[in-house]
Amino acid sequence: MMNPWLLWSAVSTTARLSTVLQILIFLPLTLATLSRHAFLLLSLLLCIHSLIHGTLHMFWGSNAWSVLQVPMHPFLLLVCFNVFSSSVNPSIITATELWATFLTLMGPLFIAMEGLSSLLVAQKAGQEAKKLLERGEVFQFGLLIATSVTYVISAWWIVESYPTAASSPLSSTLLGVALTTFLFLTFIGFWLRRTNIIESSGLALFIAYNVWLCGFDVKAFLDPASSYTPLLSNILPHFQTLFNFLINTLPKPVLIGLLYRLFILHLASRILPTIGADNWSQEESDAEWDSRPTSTFTRILLTYRQTVFVTVYSHLLLLDHSSQIWWRWMNIFFTLVIWSIEILVSSDEDVVTKDWKVD
Fold it and tell me: Is the overall model pTM greater than 0.70, yes or no?
């Protein structure tokens, strides 16, 4: 007989996976088949639902909430289809426009969080590398090879992406400035002994990833006005048409950017409680550890991760091809600026900084 705990874990895991897939499909599907306002309404309803779900989970934590919310997303989708099947109330249009403005204003915050999280993960990798270096020459040799491979992959990735990423004089200039700045910051960090090759190679990979996304073909981005065939007339009799539609509805650059942003935020949320803003003692109790501001922020972020998912995804879907490119360049330069400040301002006498750096 199957263990009830294993059965319930499988059910709750399936429910969470179903929730993610529903959000991934329903948002671009609504944008492609109905209208921008319908998409914004569904995004707003999903965000409100995720806030309620996160709050309930915070006060009454249980996997049952994951199962109970599964039918909510199809219900909200049907609500949007029903609302926009006839004349729409002007108040709904106003609410969706306000939500669109909010998502637009949140753009810089999303970029800042992605850049800071990427830098934080790269620095954490440098810290962990220091521990491995103390274990002997085998680990030193392995890290040297891994770092060399990372540098080579980053360089190849940038060269491969150059023809499309630097399609205009301005883009090629930005790429040259970004690479020059990165090299200078790397040499300065090495000279000041405030960075290491692990951290530098991680940021090189981050730059290559953003340059690669800048080189995506404009046709790969979502264009609800012309890129997709009508779905409503085919949804019942033609399942193959539906299947093909869903594949084409999920814009690959947006999905890649979404997965990276959520993944890097998740990693950063796990790292934040280990650093803190003050010189915390290494032998604090669990209660003192949990009382840190970073630990509280992490708990809130993880509790409302579905809200973050919906807002980030909605913002990415609203951006057109040119906006995606400019946000990528801003992400690169913002991260380089923060890295330069961290290199120049950090003190050798700072205990926390010493723990984070590899001499």
Answer: yes
